[in-house]
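Page 37, continued from 36.
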């Protein structure tokens, strides 16, 4: 079955595509607009240098609840923020912008958001009224992001903020007890931790031990050493 023929599967609820070629982007957009009952969708490109262009997706399936996207060309937030039923969104190696902005009123039902390997990302802004239901935010391998998302304090229902292999500079700014200049942004979140992959396992630091990260202590000095902890990513 070709990408264009996927649009004939009118009853389809879950769809996953791997190794999508750039030239198939337009056909995919046309097919997705026909899959009105789609609930879950994941797609990745053939490689990191193969960028998927979904700008022709003018009307995404309105019942979509879960999205896992890799290798998109444009800012996905602009195209997805008005999906009324989206509760879970994961973005990997998506767009080359240095800033992501979550606008007020966008992502009204989103509960889980993951951002991974945005190589040029330097700033994330969350306006008041954006993602009002968000419960878990995971940020991973965004090497140029040196500060916690601006406005994260507006996410009043956020229960867990997770960092995987993020710059020490960002993490150290979140230290409690007046030591971290950005601690006020995350003080309301029940669970904040940072994890680093070392020697075949994750070194996991809760927020109260962030000052230990800079010293890279032995596993015995870490609150948790995990071989089972996994980031969110599906694709």
């Amino acid at each position: 079955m070709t990408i264009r023929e996927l649009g004939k599967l009118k009853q389809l609820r879950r769809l996953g595509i791997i190794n999508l070629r750039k030239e198939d982007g337009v056909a995919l957009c046309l097919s997705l607009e026909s899959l009105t009952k789609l609930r879950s969708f994941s797609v990745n490109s053939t490689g990191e240098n193969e960028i998927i262009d979904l700008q022709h997706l003018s009307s995404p399936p309105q019942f979509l609840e879960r999205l896992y996207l890799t290798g998109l060309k444009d800012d996905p937030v602009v195209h997805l923020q008005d999906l009324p039923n989206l509760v879970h969104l994961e973005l990997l190696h998506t767009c080359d912008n240095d800033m992501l902005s979550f606008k007020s009123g966008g992502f009204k039902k989103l509960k889980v958001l993951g951002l991974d390997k945005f190589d040029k990302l330097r700033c994330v802004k969350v306006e008041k009224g954006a993602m009002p239901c968000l419960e878990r935010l995971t940020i991973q391998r965004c090497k140029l992001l040196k500060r916690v998302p601006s406005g994260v304090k507006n996410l009043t229902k956020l229960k867990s903020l997770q960092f995987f292999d993020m710059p020490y500079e960002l993490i150290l700014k979140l230290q409690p007890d007046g030591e971290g200049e950005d601690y006020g942004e995350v003080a309301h979140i029940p669970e904040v931790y940072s994890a680093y992959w070392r020697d075949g396992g994750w070194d996991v630091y809760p927020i109260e031990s962030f000052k230990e990260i800079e010293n890279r202590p032995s596993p015995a000095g870490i609150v948790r050493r995990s071989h089972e902890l996994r980031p969110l990513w599906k694709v």
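The first strand starts at residue 14 and ends at 20. Flag for discussion at group meeting. Residues 148 and 170 are 6 Å apart (CA to CA).
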